[in-house]
Specification:
single chain, 3-stranded parallel sheet, 3 strands, 63% helix
Length: 420
């Protein structure tokens, strides 16, 4: 038996001989803190499940103990007790390598003793748990799915209740499908998220929600999306949503780590929402709508990536950004590509206005030209704000919350109404 094993067993015998006290023990006794459910809200079992799930798709990875969601009040209590001269023990499996690394990292435990786990700590009440789940499934990101209604507007059939109902079902199915991917992606990206200034506050990364619950939730969300698609929408919509899900998985596992392919994939994911709207409503996909959507969403995808890399630069990082295939020196090129793509979307709109078929659709097609400066203004503003470091989220979600974007959108629609 080696020296470390004898020390651990001696501490275990001493602990068994003395009263076992938890974080609320009397000041003159030893302080014993449970790893599972006390120091870590959901313990190491969830972390190990996440790593096992990730190893099915990606290269196996070790648990990074430096960024685990330890309860700060428990760590502070342990350090205060140790400074006061009280023995502090961690109740956990004594011969576990990860547990030993946790002790070495925190430097506030005198040793490891065998002990029982506590029930997983829940969020502060049902309301807090519900809010955490709303954040986890990214309900605010569902605003992106309003893109499925774009074909309805461009086809001039936005006054048909039956089509609006079909559009709402497509909106819901896409939302559930996207939420499934968000949950799965959060579990796959636990370590990267915990190293990020903002993403570390996400419910799974911060320990607000159980990783096991997430592993159950994402297939349920996906099954719900397919149930709506198969039972209530045309078969072509199911094909499109399958393509969307497949591309999203490929993006999460591989493509987001490949330069250029990551932003092209993001643009395609937005464009697939337009195609899904066409499929759900049994409309015809036009070249002009497809080209306009691809260039516009490629510009917004580049703005999102630019904002991430700029944030890394502001935090003093050099070289490649974590989890991305971009150097911090690539910012100028990303901005050039993004602005150019946005202005190409304006060019497509201008060419669409001069197309003979368009002239026949509108009573006053000359009013459509007013849409071009509105779109030019909005794209320029998005890129200026991104360049200044004021774009802290997805540009599409930003547009939903930004009153200037609201005004620009209303003006854009008014030009088409005036032309009609």
């Amino acid at each position: 038996m080696d020296r470390n094993s004898r020390v651990v067993e001696a501490m275990a015998r001493a602990h068994a001989a003395s009263p076992t006290l938890t974080a609320g023990a009397a000041p003159d006794g030893p302080l014993t803190i449970a790893l599972e459910g006390e120091l870590l809200p959901h313990g190491l079992t969830g972390e190990r499940a996440a790593m096992a799930f990730k190893s099915l798709w990606l290269q196996p990875e070790q648990i990074d103990v430096t960024v685990l969601p330890y309860r700060p009040e428990i760590v502070s209590q342990a350090r205060a007790a140790r400074e006061a001269g009280r023995p502090v023990h961690l109740a956990a499996p004594p011969h576990d390598v990860i547990v030993q690394r946790i002790c070495d990292h925190l430097e506030c435990f005198d040793g490891i003793v065998a002990g029982k786990s506590l029930p997983a700590r829940r969020a502060s009440g049902i309301g807090a748990t519900v809010r955490a789940w709303i954040r986890a499934i990214r309900v605010h990101q569902w605003a992106k799915n309003a893109i499925v209604f774009l074909p309805l507007l461009s086809s001039h059939r936005f006054d048909e209740p039956a089509l609006i109902g079909q559009g709402l079902l497509a909106f819901l199915a896409f939302g559930l499908c996207a939420s499934s991917v968000y949950v799965m992606n959060d579990i796959l990206d636990l370590t990267d998220d915990r190293h990020h200034r903002l993403k570390r506050n996400r419910p799974f990364a911060s320990g607000q929600l159980s990783i096991h619950a997430g592993l159950y939730a994402f297939p349920v969300l996906l099954a719900s999306a397919y149930a709506i698609s198969i039972l209530a929408l045309p078969p072509l919509f199911t094909v499109v949503i399958t393509a969307y899900y497949t591309l999203t998985i490929a993006y999460s596992l591989v493509l987001k780590r490949v330069m250029a392919l990551d932003v092209i994939s993001l643009a395609m994911l937005y464009t697939l929402r337009v195609i899904a709207g066409v499929a759900a409503l049994s409309l015809t996909l036009t070249f002009w709508l497809l080209a306009f959507a691809m260039f516009l969403f490629f510009s917004l995808a580049l703005a999102k990536r630019y904002a991430e890399i700029r944030d890394a630069v502001e935090r003093g990082r050099t070289g490649k950004a974590r989890g991305r295939d971009y150097e911090t020196a690539d910012l100028a090129m990303l901005a050039s590509l993004g602005a150019a793509s946005g202005y190409l979307a304006v060019l497509v709109l201008a060419l669409y206005i001069r197309e003979q078929g368009t002239m026949a659709l509108y009573a006053n097609p000359e009013f459509l030209w007013l849409a071009c400066p509105v779109l030019l203004f909005w794209i320029t503003r998005v890129w200026m704000l991104t360049h200044r470091g004021q774009m802290h989220e997805d540009p599409v979600v930003f547009a939903v919350r930004d009153w200037v974007s609201h005004a620009s959108g209303i003006l854009f629609l008014l030009t088409f109404l005036a032309a009609t």
